[in-house]
Specification:
Low-confidence stretches: none
Oligomer: single chain
Number of domains: 3
Distance between the termini: 47 Å
Order of helices and strands: EHEHEEEHHHHHHEEEEEEEEEHHH
Shape: globular
CATH architecture of the largest domain: 2-Layer Sandwich
Structural class: alpha+beta
Strand content: 25-35%
Largest sheet: 5 strands, antiparallel
Mean pLDDT: 95
Number of strands: 14
CATH topology of the largest domain: Uridine Diphospho-n-acetylenolpyruvylglucosamine Reductase, domain 3
Radius of gyration: 19 Å
Helix content: 25-40%
C-alpha cells in the first residue's frame, strides 16, 4: 500500500480545512470499504486521508418530518431502523444487499454515493426517494439532488474542498411506497448487472397512479433517473399496460455496455424486467399497507 498521512477529524470545519489545504491529494474516509481497497491496489492516489467517523454531523440518523442520514451512518443502522422500514422500504432493500454483514457494519450510504459506481445499489433507491445531498465546504452549505450528484464513474459534483454531510429524504405521501431490486449471478455479495428502483403514489382506491419515480443502475456511466418513464404513469390506471409502457420508456434511456458480467442486449432486456418488478413490488407494498 502507498504511504499517506492520516487525520481523524473531530469537526466539519477541521475536515473542510484539511480538504482545502490538500485539495486533490486528500480523500475522505467515511466507511472506507471502497477507499481502502482502491488505495491498497493503487487505483486511487492519496496524500492525506481524512477520517470523518468522529464528526458528529455525519453520524446522525433522525426522522422528524424528513429522514436525515449522516454521510457516515453504516448500512446496518438504516435497514434495522423501524421508521425506515415502514416509510422508505427501497432503502432497506438496497442497504441490506451491499456486501455482507461485516461490510454493512462499516459501509455507509454516503460513502456508497460518493464512490459513484454506476452499479451502486443505494443510488437508485436514493433517486426514487427524492433524496437531497447536503454538501459543506469553505463557502458554506449547498444542496444537490442525488440524480445530479454523479458525473461519471468515480466522479461527483463535489469540489476537491467539499464533503458530503448528510442526505435528506422527504416523507412519502399517503398511499405511497418504494421497491429496489437487482440482478446478479449470485444472490449475495455481488455487483449488480442491472439494478432498478421505483417509488409510486396511488390514488386512495389504489386504481390510478398519482406519480412515480424510476431509477436504474449499471446501464450507463452513472445511475439513471428515468424521469420520463415515471411521468408516463401519472394519471394512468394501475394496469399491466400502463406498467409496460413505463418499462419500454426506461429501456429507451439505458446505454449499457457488454462486459464479463453481461451483454448490452441482456442488460437492456433486464431493465424492462426489473422495472416491471420494482413497480409491482411498490404497488403491492401499498396494497398490503407496508
Amino acid at each position: 500500500m502507498q504511504a499517506f498521512d492520516y487525520v481523524a477529524a473531530k469537526s466539519l470545519s477541521e475536515a473542510v480545512n484539511l480538504l482545502t489545504k490538500y485539495r486533490d491529494q486528500a480523500r475522505i474516509l467515511s466507511g472506507g470499504t471502497d477507499l481502502i481497497v482502491q488505495v491498497r491496489e493503487n487505483h486511487r492516489q492519496v496524500g492525506m486521508m481524512v477520517d470523518i467517523k468522529g464528526v458528529p454531523e455525519v453520524n446522525t440518523l433522525s426522522y422528524n418530518g424528513s429522514l436525515e442520514i449522516g454521510a457516515s451512518v453504516p448500512c446496518y443502522k438504516i435497514y434495522s431502523n423501524e421508521a425506515i422500514k415502514s416509510n422508505f422500504p427501497a432503502l432497506v432493500d438496497a442497504t441490506s444487499i451491499i456486501g455482507g454483514v461485516q461490510i454493512q457494519s462499516r459501509a455507509s450510504v454516503g460513502g456508497n454515493l460518493c464512490n459513484a459506481s454506476p452499479a451502486a445499489d443505494s443510488i437508485p433507491a436514493l433517486i426514487i426517494l427524492g433524496a437531497q445531498c447536503v454538501i459543506d465546504g469553505p463557502n458554506g452549505e449547498r444542496s444537490v439532488a442525488v440524480e445530479d450528484f454523479c458525473d461519471g464513474p468515480g466522479q461527483t459534483a463535489l469540489e476537491s474542498n467539499e464533503l458530503l454531510v448528510k442526505l435528506v429524504i422527504p416523507t412519502p405521501t399517503p398511499n405511497a411506497s418504494s421497491f429496489y431490486l437487482r440482478f446478479t449471478p449470485r444472490n449475495e455479495m455481488d455487483i449488480a448487472v442491472v439494478g432498478a428502483g421505483a417509488a409510486v403514489e396511488l390514488s386512495a382506491d389504489h386504481q390510478t397512479f398519482v406519480s412515480a419515480r424510476i431509477a436504474l443502475g449499471a446501464v450507463a456511466p452513472t445511475p439513471l433517473f428515468a424521469d420520463d418513464a415515471g411521468s408516463l404513469l401519472a394519471g394512468k390506471p394501475v394496469s399491466d399496460e400502463s406498467i409496460e409502457e413505463a418499462c419500454e420508456a426506461a429501456k429507451d434511456i439505458a446505454t449499457p455496455i457488454s462486459d464479463m458480467r453481461g451483454t448490452a442486449t441482456q442488460r437492456t432486456h433486464l431493465v424492462g424486467v426489473l422495472t416491471r418488478r420494482a413497480l409491482n413490488g411498490a404497488i403491492n407494498r401499498i396494497k398490503e399497507g407496508s
